[in-house]
Amino acid sequence: MAQDKAAPAPDHDGLDDGLGREAEDVTVAVMAASRLLVAVSARALASFDDSMTLPQLRALVVLDSCEPLKLAAMAGTLGVNPSTAMRMVDRLETGGLVDRRTNPANRREVVLRLTEAGHALVDRVMAHRRAEISELVAKLPPESRAALVPALRALTQAAGELAVDPFDEVRRIGGLVEDPLQPGA
Length: 185
Fold this sequence. Notes:
Blueprint: H1 21-46, H2 54-66, E1 69-70, H3 71-78, H4 82-94, E2 98-103, E3 106-114, H5 116-138, H6 142-159, H7 166-172
Antiparallel strand pairs: 1-3, 2-3
Helix pairs in contact: 1-5, 3-4
């Protein structure tokens, strides 16, 4: 009969995952801030379209930053499989927010771009989100505001998130295309 191994003893801070107290405090604070920012985004989106999901909004934001874009590249940028991206595009196209066309130069490719309504929705949601975040930031003491900028930039860069350069991921996966639907534009 095998003996059960004892669980590793937690370190002096009660953390058994190797993180120090400072790293754990930062992790908890970032998670709380993340929940706050998701809530801000959800409220901003709901103020204009209560049927759209946050992943759909993220797809619109990617297109707003990087269009025209191949469907496969959008899927890769969003971290979803192409069939999931296609279903998302189906819903966004039905809502009049996305234009989907076959690339005349390569009939196997689907090229996406936002419609005027899609651009307008992204602009309104982002303006609403920016205003709410600005109100929150204005409530902070000046030294806290100043400390947030380098910390948030470092966190975003460490994650390799699109906010640093929206084209990096799209370029990496080869999804940024000349507009095949408007040659010479």
